[in-house]
Specification:
The complex is a heterodimer of chains A (330) and B (327).
Chain A lengths: L1 E16 L4 E17 L3 E5 L6 H8 L7 E6 L2 E2 L5 H10 E4 L3 H4 L6 H12 L11 H11 L16 H13 L5 E5 L7 H18 L2 E6 L2 H7 L2 E6 L2 E7 L3 H4 L3 H9 L39 H5 L5 E4 L2 E3 L2 H6 L4
Parallel strand pairs in A: 3-8, 3-9, 6-7, 7-8
Antiparallel strand pairs in A: 1-2, 1-4, 4-5, 9-10, 10-12, 11-12
Helix pairs in contact in A: 6-7
Chain B lengths: L5 E14 L2 E14 L3 E5 L6 H9 L7 E3 L4 E4 L2 E2 L5 H7 L4 E4 L13 H12 L4 H14 L5 H5 L8 H14 L4 E5 L7 H18 L2 E5 L3 H7 L2 E6 L2 E7 H6 L4 H8 L39 H5 L5 E2 L6 E2 L7
Helix pairs in contact in B: 3-4, 3-6, 4-6, 6-7
The chains are: A alpha/beta (330), B alpha/beta (327).
Bound molecules: adenosine-5'-diphosphate (2 copies) and magnesium ion (MG) (2 copies).
């Protein structure tokens, strides 16, 4: 059963300028994106910077309003809800950010910050139904690998990895069902990245969380997620299960991402894939397929018609004229 | 590798900072050689002293806040750069040894065009006249595969993407055909497809000019992909040196092994990653024994009490700082 259902989501940002500060162009940050996330599933979003991953995450969280399209949480369309009606969903949906510094208030101790969020969302008594606040905060800190006496410290007294644990503790403090994690380990060293990924994995299993996991790092997404969407210039170009991405990737962009990734073993060195052609401006995307300017297998059709995301097999969807011509859905 | 070919030799480099909490030794008796035409990787978690090592070699650290210990040697072309005069350094910097940074904006001048900055480098390093320099600048931008190179000459750094700025930096470094290029996390801020382009450009530079590259990175994938030899740093010290295949297949230091184990491995199903618990110790609060002891899975009493010395293993190419090296 889908916990999150996103349908034909579009988000444009206007660019103003010139005479009278009119809208002179639009960034097509998210373009006609549809997908579902099942309860308990971790869906990864992968793609290079500027492809619209964060915007997608923020629109789903309703931190931004979509230009068009819909977002359903557990069957309830969110975009029609008033601020008041949205309140219970704000508790159920939480976010973890790449840079915990910018999302932690430097003037509040960790304990005070957590208490503030918990009190705000505990009106129905749901969060503190089993434990008083103090005890609940202690158990929360221990869950994310921090000590109880850390609650009297300020954010700057922690390392990057610890701050990310605090960011996770804050998101989980209100007992959400759904988590959007936007590049949660991208600023961390691999050693610490592994600590935080393991922690998120444990919490996900313990709390049966549903997660949208955003990262530019295909290796991390492949390891952590059940399924992934590959985005390019605001479009989803491929959707497939993780763990066998190397065998399964069909879209030429996904393959280019894989081929550009350095190896993990010097014995497996290969010439890294280098894409020719220019990265198009998001203000002026190509007419046809968004990847057409860099695609090694493009045809004339690709220059004029944008390929739809089509089902290639039970588990995989690809938006590419060439791939779908070769592998029509059985 | 042949001893005579080392073009840069670093011996017992110790770099200290004066801070309001007292002096700290950020780089502690670091020694290594750089050979012509090789790529030497320097890896380690953030805060291990990689940038301070590279800036020490270029003498780019603030003089009033930092100093080298007396026996520090940075030997290049018969000179010890550690104690060389600014005039001698200017000769070396850019000419013989060039550096590129993670954030090229710090090294590019924001108020001048790309063309102007290339022209300055060429003025300094060649005897070309104005027209000749302009032609060469364009060639350089083409060489680094800059899109629309003619247009870029009249653009300012802020008008370029991160990948393009890094290409300008490489083009400037190329102008002087340096013997050594020190690249400090040159691709860390870039997307993988752009990283692939930059790594290929550095590889070309090495092949065309014979430039030795010191590639500083925290990304072991990049090391596996392009380095010949590797230096692993931890808390300001070298803890292991080895040829790249040896390092990846038979690491000697538990820290090296732990770093390798913590990588997600595509195609290999891992239920959990193997993390290194804890963090790099603060320079103000270093363990009295081995600096890695409090995070090491194999720590013994001796490790807590006695700092290990760096020792050469079976081959002179390999050394390790550990009381109980693996294997
Ligand atoms: N608030 C905004 N105003 C205008 N443009 C924006 C805004 N936020 C993002 N964008 C643009 O939308 C596109 C997608 O950005 P983003 O979602 O941040 O990508 P990603 O997270 O994949 O790096 C980019 O071209 C970015 O410049
Ligand atoms: N100007 C400075 N004053 C005091 N300490 C410094 C200064 N610059 C760097 N350090 C310290 O030196 C150590 C090594 O830093 P750095 O070389 O930047 O690490 P890396 O590049 O490996 O991430 C760190 O502990 C850092 O805090
Ligand atoms: Mg983002
Ligand atoms: Mg550094």
């Amino acid at each position: 059963m889908a916990l999150i259902k996103v349908s034909q989501l579009v988000k444009h940002f206007p660019k103003r300028g010139g005479f009278l500060n009119r809208v002179i162009a639009k960034v097509h940050a998210v373009n006609d994106v549809s997908f579902e996330i099942h309860a308990g599933e971790t869906l990864g979003i992968v793609g290079e910077s500027g492809c619209g991953k964060s915007t997608l995450g923020r629109v789903i969280m309703r931190l931004l309003d979509p230009t068009s399209g819909s977002i359903e949480f557990d069957g309830q369309p969110l975009q029609e809800l008033s601020h008041q009606q949205m309140m219970p969903f704000r508790r159920k949906m939480q976010m973890v950010f790449q840079d915990p510094n910018s999302s932690l208030n430097p003037r509040l101790t960790i304990g005070a910050m957590l208490a503030e969020g918990i009190r705000f969302h505990n009106r129905s008594g749901y969060i503190l139904k089993d434990q008083p606040l103090d005890q609940y905060i202690d158990s929360l800190l221990s869950k994310v690998g921090l000590r109880a006496d850390d609650k009297s410290k300020y954010p700057h007294e922690f390392s990057g990895g610890q701050r990310q644990r605090i960011g996770i503790a804050r998101a989980l403090s209100v007992k959400p069902d759904f988590l959007v994690a936007d590049e949660p380990v991208s600023a961390l060293d691999v050693s610490v990245q592994a600590q935080v990924l393991n922690l998120m994995q444990d919490l996900r299993d313990d709390l049966s969380l549903t997660i949208l996991f955003i990262s530019h790092d295909l290796k991390v997404v492949d390891h952590f997620c059940d399924r992934m969407l590959v985005m390019y210039l605001g479009h989803v170009v491929e959707e497939m299960p993780c763990k066998q991405v190397h065998q399964n990737a069909l879209h030429p962009y996904t393959q280019a991402l894989l081929g550009a990734n350095p190896v993990n073993d010097p014995d497996e060195r290969h010439e890294l894939t280098v894409l020719d052609g220019e990265v198009p401006s998001p203000y002026d995307p190509p007419l046809g397929c968004p990847f057409v300017t860099r695609c090694p297998i493009k045809t004339t059709k690709c220059e004029s018609e944008n390929p739809p995301l089509v089902q290639i097999n039970d588990q995989q969807k690809v938006a590419c004229w060439e791939v779908s011509a070769e592998k029509p859905h059985a | 590798m042949n001893q005579e070919q080392a073009i840069l030799r670093v011996r017992n480099l110790s770099t200290c900072f004066r801070t309001d909490r007292g002096d700290v030794t950020a780089v502690d008796r670091v020694s290594f050689d750089v050979f012509r035409g090789e790529t030497l990787g320097i890896v380690g978690e953030s805060g291990c002293g990689k940038t301070v090592t590279s800036k020490s070699i270029m003498r780019l650290l603030p003089e009033h806040l930092s100093y080298f210990k007396q026996d520090s040697e940075i030997l290049f072309d018969g000179k010890n750069l550690a104690f060389a005069k600014e005039k001698e350094l200017r000769q070396v910097r850019g000419n013989d040894i060039a550096m590129i940074f993670q954030e090229p904006m710090t090294a590019l001048n924001p108020v001048f065009t790309v063309g102007w900055q290339l022209d300055e480098a060429l003025k300094y390093h060649t005897k070309l006249d104005k027209a000749g320099r302009k032609k060469r600048a364009l060639e350089m931008l083409k060489l680094v595969e800059m899109p629309n190179p003619e247009r870029r000459l009249s653009e300012y750094p802020h008008q370029l993407s991160g990948g393009m700025r890094q290409r300008v930096m490489i083009a400037i470094a190329l102008c002087c055909e340096p013997d050594v290029l020190i690249a400090d996390e040159p691709t860390t801020a870039l997307d993988v497809t752009i990283q692939a382009q930059i790594l290929r450009l550095m590889e070309d530079l090495k092949k065309r000019v014979g430039t030795a590259i010191v590639l500083i990175t925290h990304d072991l994938g990049v090391v596996a992909q392009v380095c010949d030899r590797v230096l692993v740093m931890y808390a300001g010290q070298v803890v292991e040196t080895a040829p790249v295949r040896q390092l990846f297949h038979q690491p000697s230091h538990p820290y090296t092994k732990a770093l390798l184990d913590s990588l997600p491995k595509p195609g290999v199903h891992q239920d959990r990653l193997t993390a290194i618990e804890g963090i790099v110790p603060s320079l103000f609060d270093l363990p009295s024994g081995c600096r890695f002891s409090d995070r090491c899975a194999l720590c013994e009493d001796q490790c807590r009490n006695e700092p290990p010395q760096i020792q050469t293993l079976d081959s002179p190419d390999c050394s390790v700082r550990c009381h109980f090296p693996l294997q």
